[in-house]
Design brief:
Elements lengths: L2 H7 L9 E4 L7 E7 L2 E7 L8 H15 L15 E2 L5 E6 L13 H18 L17 H14 L9 H8 L8
Antiparallel strand pairs: 1-2, 2-3, 3-5, 4-5
């Protein structure tokens, strides 16, 4: 086990780490499963290239997980914060590990797509009652649908990979809903 990971985990309100292993997959943050006598935890180092303002990410995470309750729980630092910032300026967070949870990097079946959509819908439903402080936009323009549509249209016109002809029906179906972009 990495002594550095044990030292990072030692900044959170949990017992000493006795084992750690990388968690494969994921597209944004680096993750490790850490074991303590009290149980397992998920330690994550936030990707500051994707999220240049990690303090805003962690404020959002703390607000949302606090509102939702349930199994996804942040473990506070010894100072009572939602995240630890190390000497190199890296941001770390620790969650209680959810045994039996499954993640998918890609959808391999209609059942997977349905389960993901259902989970997202349930998340939105439960978040609907959130009345706390406004959440931060952590990636400027990320939810700017008109801008994304314009980028999509430019990519279709450029067709640098030569694949647009093979998915013309899908492209037209999306473009037929163009009026929904600013909604």
């Amino acid at each position: 086990m990495s002594g550095a990971l044990a030292a990072i985990a030692g900044n959170f309100r949990t017992e000493a780490v006795v084992a750690a292993a990388p968690v494969p997959g994921g597209h944004i943050h680096r993750s490790w499963r850490v074991e303590t006598p009290a149980g397992a935890f998920l330690l994550q180092r936030l990707n500051r290239r994707v999220f240049p303002r990690p303090e805003l990410v962690m404020e959002n995470v703390a607000r949302v997980t606090g509102h939702l309750g349930g199994p996804l729980r942040l473990v506070p630092t010894l100072a009572g914060e939602a995240a630890h910032v190390d000497a190199a300026g890296e941001w770390w967070r620790l969650y209680e590990f959810i045994e039996g949870a499954v993640t998918r990097d890609t959808v391999t079946s209609a059942a997977d797509a349905y389960a993901a959509a259902r989970a997202f819908g349930e998340f939105q439903r439960r978040l609907g009652g959130y009345a706390g402080p406004r959440l931060h936009a952590t990636i400027p323009g990320f939810h700017d649908t008109p801008r994304r549509l314009a980028a999509f249209e430019a990519a279709v016109r450029a067709d640098r990979a030569g694949r647009a002809a093979g998915c013309r029906a899908e492209i037209e179906a999306l473009l037929a809903r163009r009026a929904l972009a600013p909604v």
